[in-house]
Amino acid sequence: MNNNTSKIEVKRNFYSLEELRTIVFNEKISKAAIYSAAKKGDIPTVNVGRRILVPAEYVARIISI
């Protein structure tokens, strides 16, 4: 048995709109505003079933601005 404990780093590919609101905007804009921007195409999204997801590359780009 190997007792090495190594950490596995998992890179996220998508975030939910609520996570985007928290991470990028620190909840300073409303949920309605985030969903409206996504619906208008101002925020790139991918629909997976009923979930609306934002590509991680977009989130990283916004954070780095």
How far apart are the termini?
47 Å
Order of strands, main sheet, comes to: 1-3-2
Total E-strand runs: 3
Structural class: alpha+beta
Tally of helical runs: 3
Shape: elongated
Helix content: 40-55%
Q: How would you state the average pLDDT, rounded?
A: 91
Question: Beta-strand level of the residues, as a percent range?
Answer: 15-25%
Secondary-structure element series: EHHEEH
Largest sheet: 3 strands, antiparallel
Q: How many independent structural domains? A: 1
Radius of gyration: 15 Å
Q: Stretches where pLDDT falls below 50 for ≥5 residues?
A: none
Reconstruct the topology from this structure:
Blueprint: E1 14-16, H1 17-23, H2 31-40, E2 46-48, E3 51-55, H3 56-64
Antiparallel strand pairs: 1-3, 2-3
Organism: bioreactor metagenome
Protein name: Helix-turn-helix domain-containing protein
Q: Care to describe what's here?
A:
The protein is of the alpha+beta class and 65 residues long. The protein has one domain. It is 40% helix and 17% strand. The protein has a three-stranded antiparallel β-sheet. The longest helix has 10 residues. The relative contact order is 0.21. The mean pLDDT is 91.
